[in-house]
Amino acid sequence: MTAPFAGILANLRRYTSLTPKEEEDFCTLLTVRKIRRREFLLREGHICDCEYYVNSGCLRTYHLDPKGIEHNLYFAIEDWWTSDLYSRTTREPTRCNIVALEDSEVVQITQDDLEAFTLRAPAIERFFRISYQQSLINQHMRNLRMLYMNGQERYIHFRTNFPELANRIPQKHVATFLGLTPEFFNTIHAKVLRMPE
């Protein structure tokens, strides 16, 4: 096992147990990719054919609407995964962009290699099933928060549950992720910072 794959293997071990040989075989399918700040990992209109594990850095997934307004959908930092599951599964062009907010390093595996490996090592399927379930739960809860929480409550929830993101991501991106205008977000941000701990 080489150093670039230590993180991804530890991540896999949370939900599954591969044999040492299976881990070794899995590593042969992985590629390390470095992305500079502001460089795109995935662009709208391209087909996403990889799953990405973040070794270091911070990435942002967003959609650009017809008016040219960016809507942030997801962020990924160290020890998180990112991709476009829809594009990977359907093999249709993505409507999303994934861009590096910082110099980053990801470990990638192609969809074809991942599918083939799950046939050889069914335990890996458990990992991705649990991961996708958790992702769906998180998205469901985010949708509910958008419905029943006001902007300030959403921001407090974000800061409380993702302090590492709140300190690394530019406020304009946090604002659109929370469904807020930058102006309204600035007002909320100042108010929240003045609140007692």
In spatial order, strands of the major sheet run: 1-8-3-6
| Euclidean distance between termini CA atoms | 44 Å
CATH class of one domain: Mainly Beta
What amount of the residues lies in strands?
15-25%
From the structure provided, what is the oligomeric state, counting identical versus distinct chains? single chain
Structural class: alpha+beta
| Extended strand count | 8
State Rg: 18 Å
Any idea what the shape is?
A: globular
The CATH topology of one domain, please? Answer: Jelly Rolls
What is the count of helical runs? Answer: 9
CATH superfamily of one domain: Jelly Rolls
Give the averaged pLDDT, no decimals: 92
Low-pLDDT runs of 5+ residues are none
Q: What is the helical fraction, as a range of percent? A: 40-55%
| Largest sheet geometry | 4 strands, antiparallel
Pfam families: cNMP_binding
Keywords: Kinase, Transferase
Protein name: cAMP-binding domain of CRP or a regulatory subunit of cAMP-dependent protein kinases
GO molecular function: kinase activity
